[in-house]
Structures are given as structure tokens and as C-alpha cells.
Specification:
Layout: H1 11-14, E1 23-27, E2 34-35, E3 39-43, E4 47-48, E5 56-57, E6 62-66, H2 69-76, E7 82-85, E8 98-102, E9 106-111, E10 130-132, E11 149-151, H3 167-173, H4 190-195, E12 210-218, E13 221-233, E14 240-246, E15 256-263, E16 270-277, E17 288-294
Parallel strand pairs: 6-7
Antiparallel strand pairs: 1-6, 2-5, 3-4, 3-8, 8-9, 10-11, 12-13, 13-16, 14-17, 15-16
């Protein structure tokens, strides 16, 4: 987390500086323990795991480097796997290079740089943590690709624990057998209802995407562009989605741009996105939009 929420309540007795609540988290997704003695952060922050409080990370385990341990524990509690502090550094809110190295500087991961602007998740610059998507996949995501990252499901993040929401567990909770079923008869299939943050036991029509037009100034003057806005489960990493446009409802293309991506404001794990077509809408040519979700 490079830009934590402002301290509140008893947290302010420890520190009034929000930067003191920063943390960086590593997870071992392998099947054997990892020796950290020659692992260190060499860009962004200066932190050496060698000689720290945690020398190995067990399979599925986490390890944390924090800016200020007292501040971190005031917010998250004292029982998390904190290796140590990087007291003389802090992560830039506007983004910078962050490099995890082995030995003298051989890159394990080199994020060059992360950013607080699209296509990186802008909401990570304040209140939400920056989280790697699909971290448990057999093929690790590209850490240098903005599309591999999202904001945490809830504000302040979840250091030392998972941050996803599991679709199969959700189906089991509601006794859902078919991805394309519609248990509550609201016209929204189960897979889409999960993606939109709906309740499979109550009508969720109000969550369906909303089409609109956006006026955009360009070289050709002001033009209207068709847009689609919807809320979605930010931590539904098992699902993929795309916004597509068509002029004939037969041929659909991905020609769209993400205009905004904002937390819902309810700290409910939802993020609101608006996508617009890359081609302007005209009176002569109709344009249609759709949201496609798959697993």
C-alpha cells in the first residue's frame, strides 16, 4: 500500500502521518518454503530480508515490510508476519520504480514504474491497496503490466491474507449449480450476477449496465461517443470481461476506452467503471454496446 488512508481514532496516538501506515507484501505461491536471506528491495524502498525477523516463507504464506511497525500494528493488529521496517524510505504516491532483487541486484520482480493514473488503478492513490490479480495462478502474472493489478476489495487492504472473492464458494453458498442459471428469475444469469455484485436470491436489475453518450472534444470538433457504465466485483479475479460495440448487433469489436474506475463509495468491494466507444456515434449510424463476462 503506497498511499494509505488517513489515520483515525487511536491510530492518531501513534502517528498522524498517513505515510507511516505503508506496507509491501510478498506471498509464496509455491509448494516449498522460500529462503529470504538473499532477497531485498533495491529500488523504491531499501529493505533487506536477510537478518530480518522472518527468514523463510512457507507455502501459501505472506511476509510484510512496513514503514512504521507501531503505526501498522495500530491499524492492523500485532499478529501479522512483519519482517521489519523501511524507516528511511517511503513509496511515492505518484508512482515510481519498485524492484525486488536477489543477491547483488538480480531482478526477481521489477515494476518500472507503478503509477496512480490509468491504466494503473487510480484509486490505489489513497485509501486502497494495490493488489496483484490472479496471484495464485500457475502462470504468474506480469508484475510490470498495469492490467495485472487492481485495488484491494476494501479500503486499507488486507495485509497478511487473501483479498479475492471465490466464485465457486459463492455458488456453493447459494446452492447454485449452473453458471447460466437464473435462480431468482430476474433475467440475470448467475455468472453475471456474481460479477455485478448482485444477490442471487433477489432481483438485481438495477445493477445492469447503463448506456449513455459522452461529448468529447477532438480534432473534428465535439462529438458524441456511446458509453457503458456498470459496477463490478473488483476482486472477482477468476472472471474475465470486455466491453464491446457493434453497429449491426452481429459483429462486435472491443474498440473501447476506460474513462473512469472509481470505488462505489460504500466500501462494499464494488468498483464503478465507464467505458466508451472509440468511434463516435452519429445520426446516420446506430451503435450498440454490451458487457461480456466469462470464466
Amino acid at each position: 500500500m503506497y498511499h494509505p488512508p488517513e489515520p483515525v481514532g487511536e491510530e492518531r496516538l501513534v502517528s498522524t502521518n498517513r505515510d507511516d501506515f505503508e506496507f509491501v507484501e510478498l506471498k509464496n505461491i509455491g509448494s516449498s518454503a522460500i529462503d529470504l536471506r538473499n532477497v531485498r528491495f533495491t529500488k523504491g524502498i531499501d529493505f533487506d530480508f536477510g537478518g530480518s525477523a522472518i527468514g523463510t516463507v512457507e507455502p501459501g504464506g505472506y511476509v510484510l515490510a512496513v514503514k512504521n511497525r507501531a503505526a501498522f500494528e495500530a491499524r492492523y493488529g500485532p499478529l501479522l508476519p512483519v519482517a521489519g521496517e523501511y524507516t528511511n524510505d517511503n513509496l511515492r504516491n505518484s508512482g515510481e520504480r519498485l524492484k525486488l532483487s536477489f543477491g547483488a541486484g538480480s531482478a526477481i520482480h521489477d515494476i518500472n514504474p507503478y503509477s496512480d493514473a490509468l491504466p494503473w488503478p487510480p484509486a490505489a492513490d489513497g485509501n486502497f491497496s494495490l493488489v496483484l490479480r490472479g496471484v495464485n495462478e500457475a502462470l504468474p502474472p506480469d508484475h510490470n503490466d498495469p492490467e495485472s493489478w487492481r485495488i484491494s476489495r476494501y479500503s486499507a487492504g488486507s495485509p497478511g491474507g487473501g483479498d479475492g472473492i471465490d466464485y465457486d464458494s459463492w455458488k456453493e453458498q447459494y446452492d447454485i449449480a449452473d453458471d447460466l442459471g437464473d435462480e431468482d428469475g430476474d433475467g440475470i444469469v448467475s455468472l453475471l450476477e456474481f460479477f455485478l455484485g448482485g444477490d442471487p436470491e433477489a432481483g438485481s436489475q438495477h445493477l445492469l449496465p447503463v448506456a449513455d453518450t459522452h461529448l468529447v472534444e477532438g480534432e473534428a470538433g465535439a462529438q458524441d461517443f456511446l458509453s457503458l457504465t456498470f459496477a463490478r466485483e473488483i476482486a472477482a479475479d477468476q472472471l474475465s470481461y470486455v466491453v464491446e460495440f457493434s453497429s449491426d448487433l452481429v459483429t462486435w469489436v472491443e474498440g473501447s476506452s476506460l474513462l473512469r474506475q472509481d470505488p462505489s463509495g460504500n466500501d462494499d468491494g464494488l468498483v464503478v467503471e465507464t467505458w466508451r466507444s472509440d468511434s463516435p456515434a452519429t445520426e446516420e449510424a446506430r451503435l450498440f454496446a454490451r458487457l461480456r463476462v466469462w470464466r
